[in-house]
Amino acid sequence: MNIMKTLINLEYSRYDLSRRGKHYSLFAALTLIILLFMTGLNLKGTHVSERVPFIYASMLLWSVVTILSAVHMVTFKSLSHRDWFLSFPHSRLKLLYAQLFSLLRHSLNLTLAVLAAACILYYYSVRAGWYQPLTASGLIYLFSANTLFLLAFLPLAVTFGLGVSLFLRSRTGALLLFPYLMIWMFPFIAESALGSANQEFYTSAASSPGRVLLAALVLCLAGWPLCHLLMKLIAAKGMNAAAAADRLSAARTASLRPGFRALRMKSGSGSAGRLVPYLLLYRLHISRVHHIEKHPAIRILKLVVPFLIAAVVYLGFALEEEVVILDFIKPLFALLVMLGSIWMLMRTGIERKQLPWLLSFPQSRLALLLSGVAVVWTTVMRALSALMLSACAGSVAALLAGRTGIEEWSHSISWVLYSFLLSVLVLTVILCLLQIEYCTLKLKVLNIVMIPLAMLGPLHSFLLNRFMYSGLHGGASPDFRLLGLTALIALPVALCCIPAGAAYYHMSLIQPAGKKTRSKQA
Amino acid sequence: MDQPFELLPEPFQINPSLPIYEQFVEAIQGRIVSGQIPSGSRLPSVRELAAGRGVNPTTIARTYQELERIGLIVTYRGQGTFVTRDETAIGGARKVMMRRAIQDFKAAAAKLGITAEQLLEFDKEDSNE
Amino acid sequence: MSEYILDNSNSGIGVSAEPAAVECIGLGLTLRKKSILHDVTFNIPRGSLTGLLGPNGAGKSSLLRIIAGLADPDTGSVEIFGKPAGAKRLGELSLLPDRSSLPGWLSVREWLNFAAGIYPDWDPAKAQELQAKLSVSAEAVISTLSRGEEARLQLLTCLSRKAPLIILDEPFTGVDLISRERIASAVVAELADGARTFLIATHDIREMELLFDRLILIGGGTIRSVDEVDTLRRSGKSVESHYREVFA
């Protein structure tokens, strides 16, 4: 058991915030709690029932924990100490369990912050008079039931996230990626269906603490053994990344080399026009994205998802539930924006090996940074556009099939368009703001700003719900003027961040490795 | 441990194309015979010498084995390896080396097309001038 | 100091009753239709220092990974000390992986504390001794170490265990001269103490030339020659000249 503890501590120390400074973790925790509290205030169900903060807490934790575990697993291949880790004289299952437990520990830290925010939200709501306060015992009952529920499903969340490795191995695995994502989306869909559409759900018996406790028990008894089986499967299949990884990374660098060569040649011959260096750099970065897109799993996703979106939209119209369509589309847009922001945050780590080469190119740092941002932006834009187009296609199909009238159709489409434009705006703003990360290398104090920025990715949808989508359920038209005004203010501010970051881009060369801003784990 | 002598000449070039232990034996033998390594002195252990010279300990072990076979060194269990105090053994080794030196001298003379005596004659005349 | 007992199995003439440290028979490995290793057969006697030399891409790292049990061969078998190799035998050997670093966010002291818990055969006294000998500073953060210092730390981690088989994959790449000498003399000291077998894959022929007992040359996934270095030298060939002969 000593070995297990050591392995867990080793894995845990990697993202342990307290290593950065004694007060860092405390500060990060407080910021997180405050931000969560403020987001919670603006959620639509908060005024209804005392259970709602906890429901939202569960959903947030589910999404964050699974994504973090999945990202951890996917980046495992490219860790610089991967070979050493795999050469430890312990079984793969043990190593995997060590990773599971360390992720669990981080998740528990996060859970504490989330629960604290939920409690503060409850007290605030009671004081604001939104609902009747519970008795002391009722409160304890609610709180403990939900805590137990969270504790019960956290291991499942982590295992589920780690399981992504199973689907990236082979073509058959790639096919199963889609059901995997559906299972991941299930809690959100369930909440949308049960909760937002039907506010009584929150006060009914279906969501009472007793039911929650029962759910926790079921998860424990049925879910945990399932976890163990899944872990064994992952250890056997998923962690055999070692041999395959080397050849894969060799192929990947091979795909970058033509880009590098073309760049050197062209830049030496006196560029025609100032746009050329930007384009070349952009092409260099995008070649890596193209390489990832060739992965069978991604190919299948690109094929299947548009059809599914179109089908769902069509059904939505057919069943006269136009509002549900938007409740379905909005989280998808938000998810894409969130993934874009996570990708941007991780780029410093991803690019670390190529950074000396990139910075030695005879192009300005602004060009380098801009091309990096552009790559993320265009890729996410492609995904967003694909989503929107397939939604439109589904709606047009419904219109042509006579399932809906012109008025409802144009109303829904205008909301979809609004949502799309809003997501594009948010994406642009967030990506630009994240470039401040490089300024923190010079002005350490800006690190404070990075924490809320990092959280903007996952939490922005809640803010949007409050401010920009206020008319949605009331049947009003989207307010494009509000959108335009926000864009007018936010865009220039955001765009200023890029030159600011470019000025200090080179300083990331001399910083020691490990400058992580993924401080979502408090 | 402080050694008042050098076991091997300091800039000792090891030829990687010939058996290394032979080169070591040759060098150490020469130094024992000429007195540069006093008789009775303690030799470094296999481990020390190997680590110091960057050669495989097997090589050093073979060196010591060979030197012991010739009779120039003795190993006392638990105490270490020492140069022998036996003067006859050292004398015998000296004689072997002298014979070999003479052989080399004769061969060098033959290369020039003269006999060994002629070469010595030349040396006498040369040093008189 | 300890006496060094000449192991007859080194000269190749004596027949030892104990199984060889490593015995590979007919190993083959194919990845994505490319043959990485083909019909690899050799053995490594106990207590020897064997060098695995060959051009880049010859399959050295794949071979070492198979011996260590981190990868499985498609054909053939590997035995370590008489029993089949595999991931379960990781506790009996010490592997220094190629082009890999130790956890960069830890300080040296923290890493050694973790190592003491992770490796069941960790020898703290040895670790102290090697820390002094290889002059590895305890408080430095691993990601800030220079290449030479990190190489010395990695070797320290490998040697501070009691494993009887030590596999070093390119321990000298990019390492400065003094560090290389220190690493070589640490390896020699281990060898002299008797019980360990070394298998070293390296391009640094000059540094290791005088240390090899046995030489395995591998190129294009096949074994080109297996020689006792003594035999080579008796016929007037150095390791370097033999390498050139085989590969040039």
CATH level-3 fold name of the largest domain in chain B: Arc Repressor Mutant, subunit A
Q: How many helical elements of chain C?
A: 9
Shape of chain B: elongated
Helix content of chain B: 55-70%
Largest sheet geometry of chain C: 6 strands, mixed
The value of Rg of chain C in angstroms is 18 Å
Spell the H/E element sequence of chain C.
HEEEHEEEHHHEHEHEEHH
Shape field of chain C: globular
Structure description:
The complex is a heterotrimer of chains A (522), B (129) and C (248). By secondary structure, chain A is mostly helical. Chain A contains 19 helices and no strands. The longest helix of chain A has 37 residues, at 92-128. Chain B folds into two domains: 20-85, Orthogonal Bundle (Arc Repressor Mutant, subunit A); 88-128. By secondary structure, chain C is of the alpha/beta class. Chain C has a domain at 48-61 and 93-247: 3-Layer(aba) Sandwich (Rossmann fold), CATH 3.40.50.300. Helices cover 33% and strands 25% of the residues of chain C. Chain C is built from nine helices and ten strands. In chain C, a hairpin with a 2-residue loop joins strand 4 and strand 5 (83-84). In chain C, helix 4 packs antiparallel against helix 5 (147-159) and helix 5 packs parallel to helix 6 (177-192). Classes of the chains: A mainly alpha (522), B mainly alpha (129), C alpha/beta (248).
